[in-house]
Design a protein that fits this description.
The chain has two helices and eleven strands; from the N terminus they run ααβββββββββββ. The protein has 159 residues and is an alpha+beta fold. It is globular, with a radius of gyration of 17 Å.
Length: 159
């Protein structure tokens, strides 16, 4: 872990302790609940599918996580996926590689509009619960947003 990342975590911890000291634990619990609820509402539950060459899943795009994103990075069980092996499809648009995203041609997440992702990963994907972290770099502020979720993938064609 880099010194910069540790510094960020320590700053967040210090601010949390300050809020907890000034206002009590209830506001911290409420903020954590809001953050977890928003994060859980981004991933479309049950959309994770094992496909022949990897995984596919969808985001539901609630209003709090909309915007234009110049880069997209995905890690599956903490293993990064090459942007050339990550594909995204916005509603009404064809599939495109995450490597093709840019400030001039970003991924646009519109509120309430489903966005699909496909990731090519090494053969032999398992049938156990899998952890995902999707990082999106915004063309605006905040510069980086991320979503984390775990799910048990279903086979393609199963409902």
């Amino acid at each position: 872990m880099s010194a910069r990342r540790i510094g960020s975590w320590l700053s967040l911890l210090r601010q949390s302790i300050s809020v907890g000291y000034d206002f009590g634990a209830r506001p911290l619990e409420a903020l954590l609940w809001v953050a977890e609820t928003v994060e859980r509402s981004v991933y479309e539950p049950g959309s994770l599918v094992r496909i022949p060459d990897g995984y596919a899943f969808a985001l539901a795009n609630p209003p709090l996580r909309s915007g234009a994103f110049a880069t997209a990075r995905l890690a599956i069980d903490r293993q990064p996926v090459d942007p050339a092996d990550l594909f995204v499809r916005e509603l009404g648009r064809p599939w495109r590689s995450a490597a093709s995203l840019s400030r001039d041609d970003p991924l646009r997440l519109a509120p309430g509009r489903r966005t699909e992702f496909r990731a090519r990963v090494a053969p032999g994907v398992s049938a156990r619960t899998v952890a995902f972290r999707l990082e999106l770099e915004s063309v605006a502020i905040p510069p980086l947003v991320w979503f984390e979720f775990e799910d048990l993938p279903r086979a393609e064609g199963d409902r």
